[in-house]
Amino acid sequence: MNARSPWSAERATAVIAANRHLRGALLPMLHALQEEFGCIDEEAIPLLARELNLSRADVHGVVSFYHEFRRSRPGRHTIKVCRAEACQSMNADGLIEHIRRRLKVDFHETTADDAFSLEPVFCLGNCALAPAVMVNETLHGRVSPARFDAITASTLATEAAR
Amino acid sequence: MSEPLHTVYVPRDAAALSVGADETAAAIRAEATRRGIPLRIVRNGSRGMLWLETLVEVETPEGRVAYGPVMAEDVPGLFDAGFLDGADHALAHGLTEKIPYFAKQERLTFARCGIIDPLSVEDYRLHGGFRGLERALAMTPAEIVTEVTESGLRGRGGAGFPTGIKWNTVLNAKADQKYICCNADEGDSGTFADRMIMEGDPFCLIEGMTIAAIAVGATEGYIYIRSEYPHAVATMREAIRLAYDEKWLGDEIHGTGHRFHLDVRVGAGAYICGEETSMLESLEGKRGTVRAKPPLPALEGLFGKPTIVNNVLSLTSVPIILDKGANHYRDFGVGRSRGTLAFQLAGNIKHGGIVEKAFGVTLHELLYEFGGGTITGRPIRAVQAGGPLGAYLPPSLFELPKDYEAFAAVEAMVGHGGIVVFDDSVDMARQARFAMEFCAAESCGKCTPCRIGAVRGVEVMDNIIAGEKVQANITLLNDLCEVMTDGSLCAMGGMTPIPVRSALKHFPEDFTRSPAAVAAE
User: Fold this and answer.
1) Distance in angstroms (rounded) separating the CA atoms of residues B211 and B141
2) Is 3.90.1800.10 the CATH classification of the domain at B121-331?
3) By CB distance 3.0 to 4.6 Å, which of A71, B30, B254, B286 could disulfide with B281?
4) What is the pLDDT of residues B419-460, one digit of tens each?
5) What is the pLDDT of residues B32-51, one digit of tens each?
6) Which residues pair with B346 in a beta bridge?
7) Which chain B residue lies closest to A86 (C-alpha atoms)?
8) What ipTM did this prediction achieve?
C-alpha cells in the first residue's frame, strides 16, 4: 500500500529536520517526504528551500528531474511494469496491454476509484525471470497475463468490496 | 538422543522472492512443525541459477543437495520423499556444486554468493571474508594500489578503465578529505549482478570499499543504490550496521589507526545517474546532470574532493585480489582482459542467471552451453550485449570471445557482462526505435545532441517503420547517429547510436519494408 498521510507542515518539518545532518541531504529528504505523504507536496518546496538555503527553483529542478518523485498522490497501490529490453524479449508489451485493459488505466495514470497507479520502469533487475512487475514493494517474475491476474486477484477483490 | 538438526537453505534474493521464495520457506517451516522435525532454515543469497528458483538446498554429509524450482505446494511431497536426507525426487538436481551450469564456472567474485547467510559476519569469515582487508591493513597504501594494478582489474561497470590507475591518481592527490563512491545504480536491462552480490554477499562490498579507502587515504564512502532495488538497499544497510558493530567500519578499524565511515544513498529513478559524474551530482543533492571532464572525479569528485568512483563488481573483486594476490587473479582471462566477469544471461533464455567465467568465453558457449537456447524454443536471432547502449549481435558473431578489445573491434562492447536474448520474433527496427526512445526518456538534458537527437531519432525511426522514404530516412538516421556519437557530452548520447547502428548493420531487412508490406501488417 502506498503512503496516504494527509499533508502536514508540522510533520514535514520534522521529517526534514531528521535528515538535516546529512551532506547532500536533498534526495534523502525528498525520499523521506514521499514515504510519509506519498508524493512531494507543493508546500514542501519552500520548506526544503529554506532548510537547505536553496532557491525554490533549485528544489523544483531536482524534484522534476527524477522519475521517482511524484507531484500528486498515487493510488492506493502502485504497479510498476518493466519496459526494458529483457522484458520486451519476453513480450512485456503484450503484458502491458493486458494490464491496461484489465485495470482500465494507462501509464502515469491512476484508476478512477483511486485504487491503482500504473508506472513504467526501465529495469527491475529481474531480467532472467522476465517479464517483471513490482506491485507496491513486491517484485514478481515471469509474469504472464494469467499470473498477473492471480497476483492482483486478492487486491482487486478487496478494492471492489470498498 | 534427539535427531540431528537439519539445515535447509532458501534464498532471500529478490529474484527468488519474485517467484515465491518466502512462501516456499514458510511452507517448509510449517510442514516441519507439523511433522515435529527440528529444522534450521538459512536464508542465503542466490546461486545464480535463476531458472531453478526457488532453489532449495539441504545440507547432507556429501554436501548441499539442490531441489528446484520449489513452489510452496511442492513442499509436502518433498518431505514425503525424504528430501531432508537428500533423497531423490522429480525436482532433485543432486549436489548443487555438481550441476554443470555451476560446476563449469570460475567463481572468484561470487565465490560466497548463494552459499552463506548474507547477514552473518561469522559465516562471511568462515568462508574467507575479511582476509583481503586484514592483509591490506598490514600493507602501505602504495603496495595495495600496486597489487590492484598488477591484477589487471579493469572497471566492471562497462568502460573497462584500469582500476589501479584510477586508484593511483586518488592516492597521489593532495587533499584534506577523500571519498570512495560505489556506483550501484545498475540500470542496464539484462544486468542484475550488482543486485545479486549486494543481496547475497554484502560484506564483500564493504570489505572492497574499505580496502580502497585504506589504499588512497579516504575516510568516508557512499554506496549509491538505485531505488528500484529495495531489497539490496535493506540488505546493505543492515550489513553496514553489523560491520560497525564488529568494528570493521568506524573510527578504529580493528584496533588500527584506520577510519572509514560508510553510508547508503538511494537514487530516484534516473538511468543517467549510473554515469559517474551524474551520480556525484545526485549524491550532492542536485539534478543528476553530467559534468564535463576534466576535471576527473579522481581529482575533483564528490564535494570537489578526490574520489574513487567504482562499480560494485570492481570493488567486490578487490578482496580476493588482496587475499590471493594479483597473480592469482591475473592468471584468469585473455589479452588485456584479466580475471573473471559475471556474465548475466537474461531475456528469452531457457537457463537464465549468472555465469562467472574468465574473459575469453564465447557468446556461443554462454548462450547454448550455459543458457540452453531460448525459453520459447525458437531460434536465437539477436542478442544485445552490454546493456541498452550495447550492440545487437547476430549469430554470425557468437563465436567472438568475451574480451574488451575483441568486442570493440566489431563496434560492440562487453560492458557490464549483461546479455539479453531475443528469438526470431523480434523486430529489430522496433528495437532501434526503442534505443532512441530510451535515450529521450533518460537523457539528463545537458547537451543538445543527446537531448534533441534522441527525440529526432524516434521520429526518423517512426518514418522508417512506416515505410516512408526509407533510403532517405536511413541516410538521415546515419547522420543523426554521427552527430550523437561525436557531439554528446557523455556515453548516454554518445553510445545510443550503437544499438541503432548495429541493428541496421546486422538486420537491414527489418528496416527496408515497403509501404505495402507495412500496410499489410
Assistant:
1) 9
2) no
3) B286
4) 999 999 999 999 999 999 999 999 999 999 999 999 999 999
5) 999 999 999 999 999 999 99
6) B420
7) B347
8) 0.97
